[in-house]
Every structure is written in structure tokens, then in C-alpha cells.
Structure prediction request, 199 residues.
Amino acid sequence: MRIRFALAGVALIAVLLAALAAPGSAASAVEWTDPAGDANGLPRVESSPRPSDPELDVLNASFALKGDSLVAAARVQKMGIAQGSFGSVYRFYFKHKTSSYYFQARTATAEYDQLYYSTPGFYRESADGVTDPEVLKCDCKASFDTKTNTATFSIKTEGIRKTLKGGDMTGLYVQTYRRYPNFIPGDKASAPEKSAVTL
Prediction:
């Protein structure tokens, strides 16, 4: 009888772990890859002579609950500022219920940063797509690791849960931009369909 209960317990754990890891299921973390060489949102333009900017080319992306924070990360071919631009922008997009949101992390040249600050931010997009996005409260920080070529955005889980009232983050994707001085698209890396992170 004890052996039967033990086997049943092992089977139940296996089922729960499989459900957590299954593509399209809600989980505490989602990670995906993106093809190399497709950061070419600005082709054949003088300020972007390369067919793909390695500083904007996303290879791996993730959203994950870690400790007391929600962490979004994007690994690119080469961390830095794209040639002919004033900085690089990393946006981590998601949907929650009926609204769209994004986290933003930015780099900039020293001269450009004096005019336009590069502080991280949390935004809700307007329903009409024309009005400026709403700036949300953000106990957050951004970091740029040149050893791992990774841009990371982290926000306190308690704060984002108060803003979103729990639930699932869906429609996950990362979009990079070059600052020139407007944001010009580089690479878009989308998570597998139906992937979600549960707050």
C-alpha cells in the first residue's frame, strides 16, 4: 500500500512538472530563442550600413519571476550602441487582460544621455495607438552586461501585482530600436504562441 501511494505521488509530481513546462502554459518563467541576423528594421539607409545590427539582434529572451522581482532579459549578438545611432533601446512587451504594456531599458552615448535621460520605465499603451503611453509607477532598474551581451530589466513583483491585480502576462515579445533620435525598429523576437507568465 505504501509503495502504491509513493508511486501515485511520483506520478502526480511528474504531471505537475510537465504542465509547468508545457509550451503555451502559464508559468513563472518563459524563455525563447530568435534567429540571428534579422535586426534589419532599417535596411539600405546611410545610418545603418550593415544588413543587420548585432547590437540590436536578439538571440535569446525571457520573462521570469526571480526572488522579489519580475525580470525581463534579452541577449543580443553584441552589447553596445548600434553604428550611426545615439543609443540602443530594449522594450519588453506583454498583454494583460485587454491592455498592452511594455518595460523599457535604454543605452545612450554620453553626449546624448545629457539631453535625453535613459532611465528605465513601465508603460501602458493607449487604446487608440496614437496617444502617448501612460507612464506607470516603476520600482525598477536596467542593466547592460557586455560579458553576456544581455540587457536586463527588473521590477519589484509586489509593485507590478498592485498595478495589474495579478493574472497572466501574455503576448510576450522583445523589440529593439536604435535612437536616431526617434526610435527606429531593429529586431522583434516573439515568444511561442500562448506563452504566459502568471503574476
About this structure: The chain has a mean pLDDT of 84. The longest helix spans residues 2-21. Residues 28-198 form a domain with the Immunoglobulin-like fold (CATH 2.60.40).
